Structure to design on (128 residues):
């Protein structure tokens, strides 16, 4: 667990992440329960209702969702009558394999090996 906490701290230091970083148990029970993908993002409201989930973290997509949720909050303050509904959307992101695997390597060879095992087509990018 100590290594997980150090990696969480590195997110603050290396990437400037300011939000709280939570560490899962060593067996990854929480990670697996929420889909098991290597770079997911979930946003919950105060009651625990899922507001956003993404199988891959993309900053622009997360920012758009946060801006949307802030707009909804303002509408509620103005007493707008709102009803929730579910949406599924396919987003696109730039792919930089070199930068991605550089980040994985900071987490150790096990992180690289686990990712390549899960996504075998990426093995060619892991060996530079």
């Amino acid at each position: 667990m100590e290594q997980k906490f150090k990696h969480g701290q590195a997110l603050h230091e290396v990437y400037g992440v300011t939000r709280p970083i939570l560490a899962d148990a060593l067996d990854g029970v929480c990670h697996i329960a929420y889909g098991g993908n290597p770079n997911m993002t979930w946003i919950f409201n105060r009651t625990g209702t899922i507001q956003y989930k993404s199988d891959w973290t993309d900053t622009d997509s997360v920012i758009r969702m946060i801006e949307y949720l802030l707009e909804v909050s303002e509408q509620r303050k103005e007493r707008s009558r709102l009803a929730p509904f579910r949406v599924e959307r396919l987003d696109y992101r730039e792919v930089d394999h070199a930068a991605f695997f550089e980040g994985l390597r900071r987490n150790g060879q096990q992180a690289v090996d686990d990712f390549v095992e899960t996504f075998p087509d990426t093995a060619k990018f892991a060996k530079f």
Summary: The two ends are 29 Å apart (CA to CA). The chain has a mean pLDDT of 89.
